[in-house]
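Q: Given only this backbone (97 positions), what sequence would you predict?
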């Protein structure tokens, strides 16, 4: 187990800290704050079959629209509005399937 600022950090916690650092420039985005909190709390797992978040070389892969639907269930904001705010940031890669 690693330490961050003198506190023990689990593997999931480490990934959440990395997520926070990678998206520091857009930290104000409620979706990413919610996602970080859900990972830290253990409500969303990373790199598990059938889940919503996977690590890749350049960051994280968020399953869409599943991640946005889960956000809507949790927060109550309509998922497509959050999705439409997220798209202009060009952090996504569209799958042609």
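A: Predicted residues:
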């Amino acid at each position: 187990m690693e330490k961050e600022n003198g506190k023990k950090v689990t593997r999931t916690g480490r990934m959440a800290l990395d997520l926070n650092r990678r998206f520091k420039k857009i930290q104000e985005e409620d979706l990413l704050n919610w996602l970080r909190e859900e990972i830290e709390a253990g409500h969303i797992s990373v790199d598990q079959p059938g889940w919503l978040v996977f690590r890749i070389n350049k960051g994280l892969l968020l399953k869409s629209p599943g991640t946005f639907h889960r956000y809507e269930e949790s927060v109550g904001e309509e998922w497509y509005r959050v999705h439409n705010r997220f798209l202009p940031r060009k952090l996504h890669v569209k799958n042609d399937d």
